[in-house]
Write a structure and sequence with these properties.
Largest sheet: 5 strands, mixed
Number of domains: 2
Main location: membrane
Strand content: 5-15%
Number of strands: 7
Helix content: 55-70%
Subcellular location: Membrane
Protein name: Sulfate permease, SulP family
Distance between the termini: 93 Å
Keywords: Membrane, Transmembrane, Transmembrane helix
Pfam family, one: STAS
Number of helices: 24
Shape: elongated
């Protein structure tokens, strides 16, 4: 009865909105699915299979209410690269393994860590993929019959050697498609009845009519087989499996980044909140399933998801309706694809690629940081000039280096001379002649880890001549300490003991204190009172002062 009520409530409330949104998203996604498949070097129907299966599975199992999944520009370049290296069996197996990676990411709750990948790296990847996609469409835009190439320079060389065979009609179709996609929405935005009409569909109809009416000889998509894909088994060859692991991980990483970025965009448009780990599991389930039905790797697509939202989607059912409508088109309208010019698809992908190259983020990064700019440009150039697997590996390495450099720059060590003598602990120290002459205080700001040791060593070397018997290390602003930091701290304490200096650790954060207490040598030093630990620096100063007074009394007695 409860299920019946929920269904009835849905039919009365959200059904019409979801059906409308799903229908328009499917119509917009149709040429994109075909275009991405061709750009990936596979048969056009594989793009439709991917859009249908991924759209349905991710909408049913994912953690983003409005995301629409399927083939995308982000996946096109790595799919093509993997196809050239390992063949169709390799790309299907890589997609399957990538899905396992993504499900594992979700189960291990790693979704939140994607946001820690620096924006310059993400922008470099995305823009590089956009540039590769753009270059890859040049042959189709010119009406040339050239197989998809893995490297950008190979495509440019092939175009140059076939320049005599370009088609002016193909160029006009491509340019017209680009202009319609860019400018038609603005021209019809004030006309309520047609303001949401997809410009890609008008461009598609005009392109097909041009081919039929003029009987021109330019490259076409060709007829797409009507019917459902047959189930096939994968080739789980051990050698192939090992070889495709880097590509599979790259597919999983790119799919994860793209899907979660898409989910964030959807949240911003709808004031909703997605479940990143559930979304990764949904994406993984889709990628695990797709290869058995001739599907290529998929991810959430920002453009289609935005259309889904804009057209009034209310629940995940809009994504399922989108898949069902695409399935209907596949079953009954497949032969129409025989007349779709590849030049039209090139125009569609050129617009997609230009939107992937975010000039605004380039300018912002260049204005803010030279270091970020270097990372962005290196990642971008590696993506365009080398294979994407290497670019991803180097991008992740650069992001780690960037984090390391920034953490190193954060560390700072201040002495009491850097602070106002009339306030805080300085007021206590400078008001007492004994403390003033016998206490030195270091305030450590930032993580005390291996990257910060050069700063610590430099500051300590500046004060090698200090003769104060009491040295206080203020650690209130140390968020963590690693093994190198612990070892250097012990070395400093040992050196200080040889000079008859006592060390006091104050305001130590609980997580840092746990690490210190887990070290046997440091624990022993604390037990023997070679190292004292206090909750505050004022307590440490009071202890030093009391110890001094007690020693004076003891000497008098003696």
């Amino acid at each position: 009865m409860e299920i019946q009520n929920r269904v009835s409530k849905y039919l009365k409330g959200s059904f019409a909105s979801d059906l409308k949104a799903g229908s328009i998203t499917a119509i917009v996604g149709l040429p994109l699915a075909i275009a991405f498949a061709i750009a990936s070097g596979v048969e056009p129907q594989m793009g439709l299979y991917t859009a249908i299966i991924a759209g349905m599975l991710v909408s049913a199992t994912g953690g983003s209410k409005y995301s629409i999944s399927g083939p995308s520009g982000a996946m096109t370049v790595i799919t093509l690269s993997t196809l050239h290296s390992f063949g169709l069996e390799g790309i299907l197996l890589a997609g399957f393994i990538a899905g396992i990676f993504q499900v594992s990411f979700g189960i291990l709750r790693l979704g939140k860590f994607v946001k820690y990948i620096p924006l310059p790296v993400i922008t470099g990847f995305t823009s590089g993929i956009g540039a590769m996609l753009l270059i890859g469409q040049i042959p189709n835009a010119l009406g040339l019959v050239i197989p998809s190439k893995e490297q950008a320079w190979e495509t440019i060389y092939a175009v140059m050697t076939n320049i005599d065979h370009i088609s002016n009609t193909a160029i006009m179709i491509c340019i017209s498609t680009v202009l319609l996609l860019f400018y038609l929405p603005g021209l019809i935005s004030e006309i309520r009845i047609i303001r949401n009409f997809p410009p890609s569909i008008l461009a598609l109809v005009l392109s097909i009519l041009t081919v039929l009416y003029l009987q021109i000889d330019i490259p076409l998509v060709g007829s797409i087989p009507s019917g459902l894909p047959t189930v096939q088994m994968l080739n789980f060859d051990t050698e192939l499996l090992i070889d495709i692991l880097p590509a599979a991980f790259t597919i999983a990483l790119l799919g994860t980044i793209q899907s979660l970025l898409c989910a964030v965009v959807c949240d911003g448009m709808t004031n909703n909140k997605h479940d990143s780990n559930k979304e990764l599991i949904g994406q993984g389930i889709a990628n695990i399933t797709l290869p058995f039905f001739s599907g290529i790797p998929s991810t959430a697509a920002i453009a289609r998801s935005a259309i889904n939202i804009r057209e009034g989607a209310r629940t995940q059912m809009s994504g399922i309706f989108q898949s069902l409508i695409l399935l209907t088109i596949l079953l009954y309208l497949g032969p129409v694809a025989a007349f779709i010019p590849k030049a039209y698809l090139a125009g569609v992908l050129i617009v997609v690629s230009l939107r992937m190259i975010n000039i605004t983020e380039f300018k912002t990064t260049m204005n803010i940081s030279k270091m970020d700019t270097a990372v962005l440009l290196v990642t971008f150039l590696l993506t365009v000039l080398t294979n994407l697997v290497f670019a991803v590996q180097m991008g992740m390495f650069l992001s780690i280096v960037l984090l390391f450099v920034r953490l190193t720059n954060v560390i700072d060590i201040q002495t009491i001379e850097n602070y106002d003598k009339a306030s805080g602990i300085n007021a206590t120290i400078f008001a007492d002649p004994y403390l003033k002459d016998n206490v030195q205080v270091y305030t450590i700001n930032g993580p005390f880890f291996f990257g910060a040791m050069s700063v610590f060593e430099s500051k300590i070397n500046e004060h090698m001549s200090i003769s104060e018997p009491h040295i206080i290390l203020r650690m209130r602003y140390v968020p963590f300490i690693d093994t190198t930091g612990v070892e250097r701290l012990k070395s400093f304490i040992r050196s200080s003991r040889k000079l008859d200096q006592k060390i006091y650790l104050t305001s130590v954060q609980p997580n840092v204190m746990r690490i210190i207490e887990n070290d046997v040598e440091l624990t022993g030093l604390m037990e023997k009172q070679h190292v004292h630990v206090f909750d505050s620096t004022q307590e440490a100063l009071a202890f030093v002062r009391n110890e001094y007074e007690n020693n004076k009394i003891q000497k008098r007695i003696e």
